Amino acid sequence: MHRHLIIDKTNISKSEVVERGLTGNIFPPRTTRHFFPFRKIDDMDISLTELKKSNPVDVKHFIEDVTVQEEIAHNEGFIHEIDQEIDEIINYMYEARSVKEYLKYQVEMMNKHI
Question: Is residue 75, in this structure, part of any structural domain at all?
Fold first, then answer.
């Protein structure tokens, strides 16, 4: 549901994620919410022995400059969005269950007339 609610471009490619990570032009907080149109394991099979230790890297520029109050407000909005998603899932489950029962009834009625 989140992917359909945001106004901006929703098709994020793996290459865009990699490029943004390498250049430091990262997505704003919660842009992707970890919904990617590719599986996390695709082309990511790297053995720990292949990873090399290097010099420490300053990552301060990746940290969003927000107040605690702004983060609280953002998280409260996220909680509200999750509630909407849960409600939508529950509605879908009721609909699916209803369709299932209707189809079972149809099969039962058709079996009576065979």
Answer: yes
